[in-house]
Amino acid sequence: MSSTSPKPFDKSDYVSNVWKEGIFGGKVLFCTGGSGSICSAQTKAIVYLGANAAIIGRNVEKTERMAAEIATARPGAKVIAIGGVDVRDANALKEAADRTVRELGSLDFTIAGAAGNFLSPMSQLSPNAFKSVIDIDVLGSYNTAKATLPYLMQSAEKYKHDGKGSARNGTGGRIIFVSATIHYTGLPLQTHVSAAKAAVDSLSHAIAIEYGPLGITSNVIAPGPISGTEGMDRLSKSDADSLAKSKKNIPLGRWGEKKEIADATVFLFSDAANYVNGQISVIDGASWRTSGGSPGGSWEYPDFLLSGAKVEGVKGGKSSKL
């Protein structure tokens, strides 16, 4: 375990006051990509509201550090870090799910949030780079579902209800996939991610259809541009002009907050969403309805593509030739 002290939990950053404390008492969340900025916020909200959790990541130290931070959300919370896990490895994910149940007692909720991304036009996108994102996002989401569905089935049976009134013992047997909106219109520099997230959406819908009769709900959360996240730090330019252009394209005039993604997560796992299944919750301020054809910032469409220039000025650029 890292010797670094965990960052104190600030409720206002991760969950709204509208939710009743303890609504997820006795429940356990399994989250891939749990050390990332969006998934950690989702997990903090669920833990604050009573659940224990296991977060899964590739980087051992980062995963352990984030687990310690999430545990500060609620006195007595148990959050285990399962690091060194590649979501492309189905056996590793099954072992992580089994360990979660052994150590925490159950597995009631799943968030499939591990993902990979960078900016690159197709002319500079190698087949290997394309495959890497497909494998992490699509195969990783599938492996996460396969590893946890047997336990989610048990939870759904334990906490089943008919929709009349509130579920007395809470909810269970729910899975959320973290997707995106870029494939709704198509977006330059994001061919690989567009293909991957479209497949993730379809995977969630298939689970909703096949496992709905067993009481499981499967839904998607599609975030737009969210402040303070690794994705926006890596994939957007930080100069004032680029930021202003990016926010101008969003009808609400601002980037979203991690808390707004976490609140959607709480809703989908809560008693309020008992009949929500096979749906996509877009949390983006209507950004996707105005951003089609341009990745935002200073990459003007189609001028940037016609120039043949490499993506520069961001941490998440990629320039591998075909």
UniProtKB/TrEMBL annotation:
Its EC number is 1.3.1.124. It is an enzyme of class 1 (oxidoreductase). It catalyses: a (2E,4E)-dienoyl-CoA + NADPH + H(+) = a 4,5-saturated-(3E)-enoyl-CoA + NADP(+); a (2E,4Z)-dienoyl-CoA + NADPH + H(+) = a 4,5-saturated-(3E)-enoyl-CoA + NADP(+). The keyword Oxidoreductase applies. It holds the Pfam family adh_short_C2. It comes from the Eukaryota. The keyword NADP applies. Keywords: NADP, Oxidoreductase. This is 2,4-dienoyl-CoA reductase [(3E)-enoyl-CoA-producing].
